[in-house]
Each structure stands twice: as C-alpha cells, then as structure tokens.
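Morning. Coffee machine broken again, so started the prediction first thing and wrote up yesterday's gels while waiting. Chain of 200 residues, entered below exactly as on the submission form.
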Amino acid sequence: DEAQVPFDDPATYALISSARTLGVFQIESPGQRELVGKSGIEDFEEIITDISLFRPGPVKSDMITPYLEAKQGWKPVRYLHDDLRPILESTRGVVVFHEQVIEIIATFARVTNAEADEARRALGDPDGMAQVRHWFFPRALAHGYPLPVVETVWGVLESFASFGFCKAHAAAFALPTYQSAWLKAHWPAHFLAGVLTHDP
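Came back before lunch.
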C-alpha cells in the first residue's frame, strides 16, 4: 500500500546506496548498481536523477562523471553560463531531463517553452538537428552569448538529442523503484518471494 511506504526512510536509501539492488526495479543492472553505489542516494529526487542519468543521452555526453564529482564534493559544480544555474542547480550543473533542454533552448534563443520543445524534438533527427543549429546559433549570439559558450552549450544539446528522460516519466519509474527497495530493506523474505515468483 503506497500510503504505508514512507519516502523518508533512511534504511531504504542506505540499501540503494549500498548497491545491493538486485531485484529492485530499474536499478538492478550492473551499470545501475555501480552508479547508485558511487552516487549514494539520499532522497527520492536523487532516485529520479539516477534513473535519468543512466540513459544514452547523458552517457554519450559524459554527464555522469561531472554529476558524481560535484555530488561527492570532488569538484565544484560548474555551469557553462550563469543563466544555466537556475535550470541545472538541482542536478549539479548537469543536463539530465528533457525539461532542462527545453529551458536551455528557451533561455539562449529567447523563445517560449513551447517553441523550445519543438526544437528539442527536432534534435532527434539529423535534418532537424541541422535546422535547429542553424536557427539556434544566430539567436543565441544576438542575445549576447559568446560564441565559445554557444558552441559548448550546443555540444551538450547535440549529444543529449532526444535520448533523455522527461522528468515526470522518470518520477513514475522512481516510485516502484523506491517501493521495491523499501520492501527489500524491511521485508526481504516477502520481497524475494515476489521476485522469484515473477522471475524464477
């Protein structure tokens, strides 16, 4: 019962952070176990971020390394431009979600989020990518962003393309992730019986 699962349970976050997540929805693969172990999960928001980081876009644009370095305090959070701080603060300077891509495009090109989302969708297609680049650069430069910054931001957008997660989608995945981890932390026999019944 969802109402009986507290979302501030230290034992659940400790289990996830220990990487003992075999059988736990969404975070049982070797790569995910390595990521949650290195990251250390402290709250529900970080489960959402973790699930979203382990996607082709963030992996391809090497967003996991800077996220982990900033989260562990090994390196300071780095923003490509101060205008990105409010967009990327919750994910330690790293682009993780579709919503962040939309906000970056909207901010640099000075367009609405709806227009920016159309551009984001076009990034998944080579022709669309070329068209968005042709449209994005002049607008960003016209609004005073230096060319090296625009090029670097574009590189992130280009790598991310359409492979990331919508945050709402990731949150929907994170709910059963947390619930199954909670069950494993508090009712391991019941949890294992369920796992073995589902996937003997």
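The CA atoms of residues 32 and 54 lie 7 Å apart. Going to sketch it on the whiteboard this afternoon.
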